UniProtKB/TrEMBL annotation:
Gene Ontology MF terms in the entry: nucleotide binding
Domain Gfo/Idh/MocA-like oxidoreductase N-terminal: 2-117
This protein's name: Gfo/Idh/MocA family oxidoreductase
Domain GFO/IDH/MocA-like oxidoreductase: 137-246
Gene3D superfamilies found in the cross-reference section: Dihydrodipicolinate Reductase, domain 2, NAD(P)-binding Rossmann-like Domain
InterPro entries: Gfo/Idh/MocA-like_OxRdtase_N, GFO_IDH_MocA-like_dom, NAD(P)-bd_dom_sf
Top-level taxon: Bacteria
Signal peptide (residue range): none
Length: 327
């Protein structure tokens, strides 16, 4: 799998570290608007080619897969261009700003017989699979609680009157799509689509959510997902059943440590050997790519589509509007 990257943020650094840790993937090129912005990462991971033109990246015959890690609002445009040029795509979360955008990407990928993946770490983590495998031991589920909160390094800039991309409705920012989406994936991958979803948010004057609480109603239980970029918290996920509970330390995004509590018993569940969460999703994508398993790829797409439908419904419930909603 020969990869070209779009973006130079910390997530790209983590992704390139994951690439370096695998045997089946290599990054052959990077795109950045300015060469000097990408040079540090290119030197760190010995990537020889830096493009300052997207067309040049897309026309590079060595590049098979494009990893899109640009600002949220640009995911759709960059993924679409890559697909139009015959490239497979790994797109960072949130997949797109609207369901309509994702519908277009999925149709295009299938038309061109290309693979399209959402880079959401949680569902590919070995410890998340252990949660799935042990869920039945809890009996009837009654309550799910998740909190993933991380004070943004850009929050003070927002308070000072600036509008960083991550807090900008024009760039499809906000706490729900940037951080609470991990909680939503955690719940929906375990339990499917809820009967109803609502979102109550703390909003900045520009209309963006800096923190908030999702409530997902299922036939027999309720799930609550809190996410914040304006405060820190003790992050966790709890699944409570009539026969016990599962406690995920440090939040749904990493599933670092998982504990199964049944009666007086407490058992630690852990099969993760690296702290780089992106490694596991990349290994999963590599395997699907190598086997040319389009059926599995498109099953993942169907799942991502169902999650995005809930994200958009929740966002609209809280009155959060993106520029992309008008297109």
């Amino acid at each position: 799998m020969k990869i070209g990257t779009i973006g130079t943020g910390f997530i790209v650094d983590a992704f390139l570290a994951a690439v370096d840790s695998t045997d089946e993937a290599v990054c052959t090129a990077m795109y950045s608007r300015k060469q000097e912005t990408a040079k540090t990462l290119a030197d760190k991971y010995e990537i020889s080619t830096i493009y300052t033109s997207l067309d040049e990246l897309f026309e590079d015959n060595e590049v098979e897969v494009v990893y899109v890690a640009s600002p949220n609002s640009l995911h759709y445009y960059h993924a679409k261009q890559a697909l139009e040029h015959g490239k497979h795509v790994i797109c960072e979360k949130p997949f797109t700003s609207t369901v309509k955008e994702l519908d277009t990407l999925i149709a295009l990928a299938k038309q061109k017989n290309l693979m399209l993946f959402e880079a959401i770490t949680t569902i590919h983590l070995p410890n998340f699979q252990l949660v799935k495998e042990n869920l039945h031991k809890l009996g009837q589920i009654k309550l799910v609680q998740c909190n993933y909160s991380q004070l943004s390094s850009r929050y003070n800039a927002l308070l000072a009157g600036e509008t960083p991309n991550v807090f900008n409705p024009e760039f499809s920012g906000g706490s729900l799509v940037d951080i609470n989406i991990y909680n939503l994936h955690f719940v929906m991958n375990l339990f499917g689509t809820p009967d109803q979803i609502s979102y109550t948010a703390n909003k900045h004057a520009n209309g963006i959510d800096t923190s908030g609480v999702l409530v997902l109603n299922y036939p027999d239980f309720i799930a609550e997902c809190a996410g914040a970029k304006d405060t820190n918290s003790m992050n966790f996920a709890l699944i409570q059943g009539e026969k016990g509970f599962i406690h995920v330390e440090n939040g749904a995004n990493g599933c670092r440590r998982v504990y199964l509590h049944t009666g007086a018993s407490k058992v630690e569940l852990n099969s993760q050997t690296t702290t780089n969460n992106l490694y596991y999703e990349l290994v999963a994508f590599q395997d699907i790519f190598k086997r040319k398993d389009y059926e599995q790829c498109y099953q993942l797409l169907d799942y991502s589509h169902s999650v995005l439908e809930q994200v958009v419904a929740a966002r609209k419930d809280a009155g959060i509007k993106f520029a992309a909603d008008l297109s």
